[in-house]
Amino acid sequence: MDENQISPITPDIPVTATPPQSVAPPPKSRKKLWLLMAVIVLISAAAAFWLLNHHTHTQQPVSQTSHTKTSTAPSATLATTQGLKLDPNKNYGNKYANGLLPVGDGKYTTTSAKQGYVYACSTYAQSLSSGQGGAGTRGPWFTDNNTVYDINKEVHVAGSVAWHGSFSDIINSDNRIITTNDLPNHVTGIFPIAATDPAYAYDRNPNSLAAQNLTYTLSANPIYGSPQCMGGEAGVMLTGVALFNAFDAGGRDAGAWEVQDQCGGHPQRSHEYHYHTLSSCISDTSVSTVIGFALDGFPITGPKVSQSNILTTADLDECHGIVSTVNLDGKKVTTYHYVMTQDFPYSVSCFRAKPSPTGPSAGGQQTGPPANQLGPPPRRQ
């Protein structure tokens, strides 16, 4: 019987006089009591849900991924239309549909930006000639006198480990402030690479993943200008993962040489998980979809114009960017942006605006030299 239909209970009164028994409240009183209790339960549940979604936990491998993106306000004035423009009616083709990609070993310049090359600052370039770090053995996926590699034959680090990521993207006045613990919203392989893993024959990455404390204070309205040189870090992706440029620590094509996991990532010596190439675990790679931000504040998108119509390095400017309409902070904005492609140099190859005054250091808040003077990512070994 419904609680609202319960009648008052009147106990039998004995013949002998006794104190009257207590009676249940009338129906209207009981109805009000139940409504009050329901409201209290709903408020308590809402408070618990809010705390669960705003509390930062100690990040350890877990069975499910928890990852959020928040923004307090849209970047209302970003509208940079200078630069090479995308032709939405052009068929750019699908040049690398067969998976054969050019190897970019040593393709950097220190004098000026050049299409297909990384414009490296002098301090960074000096470190690239030392031959440090990276994979130990050239894989069997290299072909054509080692000038091409076949992504269909590359091995990947085994395993499927899920993580709890902590990520926020907030517009505060003229700044975009991104904070992340660098743990992705997708699974990773098992690191360090196990000796029983087939990948171990080519790359013995000894590093494990660990939560970082990265804060990127970027311009929400970057000003397009002449190309500026870069160091080893390029930006941050909305998966919560740091983005490094195209090279390993020795100036070789990281996409060709290093063995990453199934999502295209791996950790370095400071346990910072990162990408060099477009992650296969980013599902929407449209040229209109923002998937990250460079250190100068300009967005990063995927290369897909339409089905079998995919941008490559040859279609972009010397910094690996183009001007088109993108979906940014809930608005359609025509702006310059970088494009992540299948082929070298994969992403940002120089900066079109002034990069963040301080680049994110591995495992800590933004510290150290200016972003365009940062050396390579810390050595893996």
In short:
This protein is an alpha+beta fold.
Structure explained in plain terms:
The chain is of the alpha+beta class and 381 residues long. The protein has one domain (60-381). It is 10% helix and 19% strand. It has helices at residues 27-54, 122-128, 254-257; strands at 100-102, 108-109, 118-119, 142-143, 148-150, 167-172, 175-180, 214-219, 233-237, 242-244, 265-267, 273-275, 290-294, 299-301, 304-306, 309-310, 321-328, 331-339. The protein has an 8-stranded mixed β-sheet, with no helix packed on it. Strands 1-5-4 form a 3-stranded antiparallel β-sheet, with no helix packed on it. A hairpin with a 2-residue loop joins strand 6 (167-172) and strand 7 (175-180). It is globular, with a radius of gyration of 28 Å. The model is unreliable at 1-24, 49-67, 71-76 and 358-381 (pLDDT under 50).
What portion of residues belong to β-strands? 15-25%
* Number of strand elements: 18
Low-confidence stretches: 1-24, 49-67, 71-76, 358-381
Terminal-residue CA separation: 71 Å
Query: Which class do the helix and strand fractions yield?
Result: alpha+beta
User: What's the Cα radius of gyration?
Assistant: 28 Å
Major sheet: 8 strands, mixed
Question: Could you say which overall geometry the principal axes of the C-alpha atoms support?
Answer: globular
Task: State the share of residues found in helices, binned by percent.
Answer: 10-25%
Q: What's the number of domains?
A: 1
Number of helices: 3
User: For the largest beta sheet, what order do the strands appear in spatially?
Assistant: 11-12-10-9-13-14-18-17
Mean pLDDT: 81
Order of helices and strands: HEEEHEEEEEEEHEEEEEEEE
